[in-house]
Amino acid sequence: MDKSLGLIFLWICVGHMAHAAVMEKLANFKICADKDCSYVISMAKALEDYVASDCRYINLRRGQSIYVFSKLKPVEGAGVFWSGSVYGERYVDQMGVIGYFPSNYVNETHVFQEKTVEIPTTDMDFFCA
Length: 129
Known about the structure:
The protein is mainly β. The chain is 12% helix and 34% strand. It is built from 1 helix and 9 strands; from the N terminus they run H-E-E-E-E-E-E-E-E-E. It has one helix at 2-17; strands at residues 21-22, 29-32, 42-46, 65-73, 81-87, 98-102, 106-111, 117-120, 127-128. A hairpin with a 7-residue loop joins strand 4 and strand 5 (81-87). The longest helix is centred in the N-terminal third of the chain and has 16 residues, at 2-17. 21% of the residues are buried. Keywords: SH3 domain, Signal. This is Otoraplin-like. InterPro entries: OTOR, SH3-like_dom_sf, SH3_domain.
């Protein structure tokens, strides 16, 4: 019985991993409040709606508040994306989901952390599950 439960668990895990993928890197470096990117850099407000193009991104609704955790440092000629999580009682279904969004869709309203660190991005920064 224990062996069959273990096989079922393994089958479920492998099945979920088959749907995961490492996506193209959007940048080689990111700016964060700390070396783990666990603290919020700033708060922003969405200027207009943004529909996520894949699982690396989050949807934004105009007027929505967003906690910004990192800012990708773009390669010359590339777009500028920030990473964050939406906030607000109206958006409970999206709270806690962290993803990228174009920085030109938001207005930074409050900076919590002036001093930042630049760290390299990893493949896990662009992992889609």
